[in-house]
Amino acid sequence: MALKYTLKRAEVIDGGDVVATVRGLSLNDMTDLMQINAEAMDLLFEQFRGREPDSISEIEVSGIGVSLLKSAPVIVAQIIATATDAYSEYEEAEGRPTPMDVIMAMPTGTQMACLEKIGELTFNAGFDPKKLIALALSVMKGVGQG
User: Which one Pfam family would you cite for this protein (predicted)?
Assistant: First the structure.
């Protein structure tokens, strides 16, 4: 049987203009982001430690994006940069802003729209975001021991 997966992408629209084309995050993407930002992610997910995924409400899950915007704007920019593959075509040049500079300058609403699309694509196969929280806690536990 051949692998028949096609990477899905979606456009993020702001004021009628396409501001980004994003894809869902892979397990490798999420693990890398959690390892790079272990301390901040640990604080973000502390409220879920020791809980079963089914005990986590949808409101708590949706609040993660808002919490990220408030407390970890660099992580938000890293998520968006990863999901847009921003660095794959970037060539450094004097005076040229980096993808992180561009993303960090986006209005909060535009960043949130990007996160929403990324979330939809990341969890497109019926994957429960609550299971991601359990996975994140497991990965962070491993990072803390390493």
Answer: Pre_tape_measure
Is residue 125 packed enough to be buried (19+ CB in 10 Å), middle (13-18) or exposed (0-12)?
A: exposed
The residue type found at 3 is L
pLDDT at 86: 92
Domain edges within the chain: 10-145
Contact 50, 131 (CB under 8 A): no
Helix axes 129-145 and 58-71, enclosed angle (nearest 10) = 50
- Can you read off the two tokens belonging to residue 59? 């409101």
Q: What long-range pairs does 36-45 form, CB within 8 A, spacing at least 24?
A: 36/78, 37/72, 37/74, 37/75, 37/78, 38/140, 38/143, 38/144, 40/71, 40/72, 40/75, 41/75, 41/136, 41/140, 42/140, 42/144, 43/71, 44/68, 44/71, 44/72, 45/133, 45/136, 45/137, 45/140
Question: pLDDT averaged over consecutive 10-residue blocks of the chain (146 residues)?
Answer: 83 94 90 85 77 78 74 89 90 89 93 90 72 70 56
Residue 92 CB partners (closer than 8 Å, separation 6+): 98
